[in-house]
Design goal:
This protein is α/β, with parallel strands linked by helices. Helix content is about 45%, strand content about 15%. The strands form two sheets. Strands 7-6-8-9-10-11 form a six-stranded mixed β-sheet, with helices on both faces. Strands 2-1-3-4-5 form a five-stranded parallel β-sheet, sandwiched between helices.
Length: about 325
């Protein structure tokens, strides 16, 4: 009888010890992630990365910290700081700081780096991604081409770099498919976050006859709203803020990219690769936002054309061309 009690007591103590260590073990399983953003976290492009990471944080998968408004000159210091603090995955955009970011990655081979970049992956730990959402951009262009009455569309972008150019070119191609008479005005404000400047550029286009505006930057939809014109969103859906202005938007979903990166880090299999494909519609990395308040305002025949094109894209029978060249205005 004594023997049984001793073993029962031992079993109880072991169970208690396991229970006591369960929480720390679970905590240790969380991947430590740090993000570095050169713009405010609410900026369109960056907000999509932040959204995906916060979703992973809410699920208990990661510990997440970030720095925003980091200057190019300070980027390397911030990146090194996060690597030194034991972060296992560092996410951000390296477009203007490629050399510095890649240098840091070389110095910390055991840290995984996932950076927005126009360059190639760098062995062994520097993976790249990009917003390859040209497919929904094409679809949103079809809607714009079918909705314009003046046949003049204004387009306001940040910088004429591949990541912006490919979306604008796809949008233009989509508009021309349904309306060959469309002319385009194109302006770049040379800033990633300057709503007042984007708004003024949009006003100038409206004055020249544009009745639909491609809002690649914040501020454009404000101009459209004030002048009673329509807008097409990019990367995020702002229709809730502009219910009578924003007809449709091409959405970027970073969740598939982040999910794969986290899985690889957890399994110790993270490698230098191009994650760009996971931003396509096939992988649910992008989509055309629901028409919402414009569901009954967009002509049924136009909606049918867009839906047919979307099915063709998903089936692989239609491919949206990736054109990274700077889009040219065609309006006279």
């Amino acid at each position: 009888m004594t023997f049984t009690r001793r073993h029962a007591l031992l079993g109880t103590l072991v169970a208690a010890a396991l229970a006591a260590t369960a929480v720390p073990a679970q905590a240790q399983s969380k991947v430590k992630v740090a993000a570095i953003y050169t713009v405010p976290v609410e900026q369109q492009w960056v907000s999509r990365i932040d959204k995906a990471l916060k979703a992973a944080q809410a699920r208990g998968e990661i510990e997440y910290v970030f720095s925003e408004n980091v200057s190019n000159a300070d980027y390397e210091r911030v990146m090194r700081g996060y690597a030194e603090k034991g972060n296992q995955l560092i996410v951000g955009e390296a477009f203007a700081v490629e050399a510095a970011a890649r240098k840091v990655a070389k110095d910390y081979p055991k840290v995984s780096f996932l950076l927005g970049s126009s360059g190639k992956p760098q062995e062994p730990n520097f993976a790249v991604f990009d917003n390859f959402i040209q497919e929904p951009a094409y679809l949103s262009g079809m809607i714009a081409g079918g909705m314009t009455k003046s046949n003049k569309i204004g387009m306001v972008g940040g910088f004429p770099i591949p990541e912006v150019n490919r979306l604008m070119n796809a949008f233009m191609a989509g508009a021309l498919e349904v309306n060959p008479k469309v002319e385009f005005m194109v302006t770049f404000i040379n800033s990633w976050f300057d709503p007042p400047k984007a708004k003024e550029a949009a006003f100038a286009m409206i004055d020249k006859g544009a009745d639909i505006l491609y809002a690649e930057r914040f501020g454009v939809s404000d101009a459209a709203k004030e002048k009673g014109k329509l807008a097409i969103g990019n990367v995020i859906d702002t229709q809730d803020k502009y219910p009578d202005t924003v007809v449709a938007s091409a959405l970027w979903n970073m969740e598939p990219t982040i999910a794969l990166a986290l899985k690889q880090v957890k399994e110790g299999k993270f490698k230098a690769e191009d994650f760009g494909v996971y931003s396509t519609m096939k992988w649910k990395g992008s989509e055309l936002a629901p028409l919402g308040t414009f569901a009954k305002k967009v002509p049924a025949d136009l909606v049918a054309k867009v839906e047919a094109k979307q099915k063709a894209i998903l089936a692989g029978t239609f491919t949206v061309k990736v054109d990274d060249s700077q889009p040219k205005p065609t309006a006279k």
